[in-house]
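Morning F.,

Quick status update on the modeling queue. The single chain you submitted on Monday has been processed. Sequence for confirmation:
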Amino acid sequence: MSRLLVRRPSPRLADGEVTHIGRTSVDPALAQRQWEAYVDVFRSRGWEVIEIDPADEQPDGVFVEDAVVVFGDLIVLCRAGAESRRSEAPTVRDAVAATGLETAEIVAPGTLDGGDVLKIGSTVYVGASSRTNADGIAELTALLAPRGWQIVAVPVERVLHLKSGVTALPDGTVVGFEPLVDDPAAFATFEAVPEEHGTAVVVLGPDEVLMSSDAPETAARYEARGLRVVATPITEFEKLEGCVTCLSVRIRD
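Structure tokens below.
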């Protein structure tokens, strides 16, 4: 059974970090409803949902993908690039320990946010961003290269994280809103999409993806490729540079 690690939104969500966009009003009650609908997408497909202990004092704690990256039977605990987020780590560490999988950890001076990590086959694209530094990329490479993963560092300056600008469809095609992608040529295959919020997809199965409901034209393009698209509203998280990928950590058994 596939497992989903999530953490419910903090009442202080509106105080979360913003870097590349202006701050706008966030509705915590609406965010909670949107988060529950997001989680229900996975639950309705048989995923086991594991809630990490609430971190109400941590506005960005809901974005759990930044704290953990899964590589097969290895879980890597990240070290947040934003110092304000480092106190999220203890509760995440406890939840990861309960999975029973092997764990490793990025340590100082390295920083690594999971939102900067895009896996396609055995290739791992890592965003060299304001949140992930060269030491963090080197530490990740040392952990993964012996396991057969190839690490490719790519520049990220136009958005917060690599996966704020690009993700990948089930066939490995990298998709992104081109004005927000620093170097489309860094990827083996790249396809531009017409809407900013159409860049982020979570692969639910070989022919099914989850994405924001705020990109209907992009959804139609994905459906024309033969994909089943599940669209869910995440407006309150998008106001904080969040997307469908960063609200969960997927452990596929």
